Amino acid sequence: MRKLRAIHFAPAFAIVALLAWAFASPIGAAPDDDYHLVSTWCAVVDGTECAAGTSAATRSVPEALVDSICYAQKPEVSASCQDGIDFTGTANTVTKRGNFSGGYPPVYYAVMHTFVGHDVEVSALVMRFVNILIFVGLITGLFLLLPPERRPTLIWPWVIGSVPMGMFLLASNNPSAWAIMGVGTGWLALLGYLETSGWRKWSLGGVAAIATVLAAGSRGDAAVYAIMGIGAVFLLTVPRGRRGWKRYALDAILPVVLVIAAALLFLTARQTAAGLGGFSGGTGGSLAPGAATADLNGFGRFAYNFLNIPFLWAGNFGQWGLGWLDTSMPAIVSYGTIASLVAVGFVALRSMWGRKLVVVLAAGATLWILPVYVLTAGGDIVGEQVQPRYMLPLILLLIGLVMLTRKDRGYSLSRPQLILVIATLSIANLIALHMNIRRYVTGIDAAGWNLDAGAEWWWHIPFSPMTVWAIGSLAFAATVYIVVREVSWPGRQVSSA
């Protein structure tokens, strides 16, 4: 009988950590959740959960889908404003907010629709749990299938790139959850497919296909990122001379099919085509860094956006608010997560060769140039229209490429360095989770470490806000410690034979 090790418990700890985030916010808390929940319910217009509206551009849906966001962009208002909402789905209302004209690819909404029931609250929670299980399943499967020397490249991007935005979205009802997990895992599964053989090779090919569908089936921009990931793998693995081309040509059939599938799903999404032409109608400069920006135009606007794009990236690490951008994080969260990212990434740059340099520079340039173009074309500035979460899948791809090492070399930090990174990320997650729960339990106008005191809203579950926070924080810390110890602890790395 195989001896149990700490790593065998990591998936369970990860599920618990993400479940804490799933319960940390009420229904409707993710960005544009009224739109995405309605789109999920109306993936099938069956006359029960979703019916035809007063026009082709409207639908009749449960009132709770629209009214659940009563606290949105009102950070001092707790989720207790939902107390009068009928979550049983018996009261309907007509809305024009939904994926009725194909703005987003249909796959995410169609899959999530299978979990729609008469109780809106329970259905939405079940969907969050499904997203968590899909993510943990993908990571666990890849960990088991990839060669040991590729495991640090799998683990580190999620460890240093998920707090707080990634944790929030992975446990949400937002299609960005699929975009993040699909783009972040698909390219590495494909790399493993091209580097292995036998049943392991075909299993990794299957994971790559699933990840591509998850990404391209959730958001149009994620389809583009998935194709970029596939392109990066091609550049990393294509044979230099004629030798090996015959086998590589056969292996390349799968990635070519995946590119075609992603491209077809991209063509179903109007939202990305509109975005590439520039959004319109700026929301003001309240989130823009720096001083007065109202009169920026022409080159001035371009220069401002070009120089401030890192502020957009930093939004995923706590610089911007969670939810409807109304759940602010203390500076310790963003400073801690960004410092950990820079430290770990800087060490990873020790392992560099020509092809890796090309794909890292290409991904980094895209991460900078694409949002500059979209913002400038739409007459917007950083802080308007383009949100950090749009960039997170590409950020995770870039981190993964940076963490890539040659097959005969591992990745490791010293024990003090690893302990510092683990502690920093655990504390950042602990604080971010506490702030997120606080925002909905009482609103931000209340203070104090005890989340149970004066609670105005909470789920009808046997666990209090403080219990969920404590268990979730400990589970996250345990997960990070276990996986980092497994893949990067000095003396534990497994080199290829």
Characterise this structure.
With 497 residues, the protein is an all-alpha fold. The model is unreliable at 281-286 (pLDDT under 50). Helix 5 (120-145) runs parallel beside helix 8. The chain has 19 helices and three strands. It has a three-stranded antiparallel sheet with strand order 1-2-3.
Computed structural class: mainly alpha
Secondary structure: helix percent: 55-70%
Query: Count of helices?
Result: 19
Spell the H/E element sequence.
HHEEHEHHHHHHHHHHHHHHHH
Approximately what portion of the residues adopt beta-strand conformation?
under 5%
Describe the largest sheet: 3 strands, antiparallel
Task: Indicate the overall shape.
Answer: globular
Q: CA-to-CA gap between the ends?
A: 25 Å
Number of strands: 3
User: What ranges have pLDDT less than 50 throughout 5 or more consecutive residues?
Assistant: 281-286
- Quaternary structure classification: single chain
Biggest sheet strand order reads: 1-2-3
Rg from C-alpha positions? 22 Å
